[in-house]
Hints:
Layout: H1 2-39, H2 45-103, H3 106-113
Amino acid sequence: MNNQFRTQTDEQEVEEELDIKLKSKSPVVESAFFRKLFTEGVVSKESATEMLPFLIFLAVLCMLYIGNSHMAVKNVRNIDKLNKEVKELSWEYKSLKADLMFKSKLTEVAKKVDTLGIKELTEPPKKIIINSNEY
């Protein structure tokens, strides 16, 4: 009975070793498949040479597509930057306009020119009328 059990386990070990060898040979089989495909199969040297201009055309199109997308992203960033700058300048304009409106009030102007000795009028201005024959 011992002999039979040992022979069965020996056979199982041999089968496991074969499975391991087959698994390790699978990349070789795959590379042989690609080698066979490109030498004897669908793609031959002649057909690859005939497809070369089309492949170059596709490569150029891909490069143009990539360049166009980069340029579009650059333009979008530039537009965002300019929009932010326009908003900031608009805020600055509004604040300066409000400041100017405040400083041009009669009371503020009177405070500024008071140091120069100029005083505010208390009576309304007089209208000077000149006849055409007097001039």
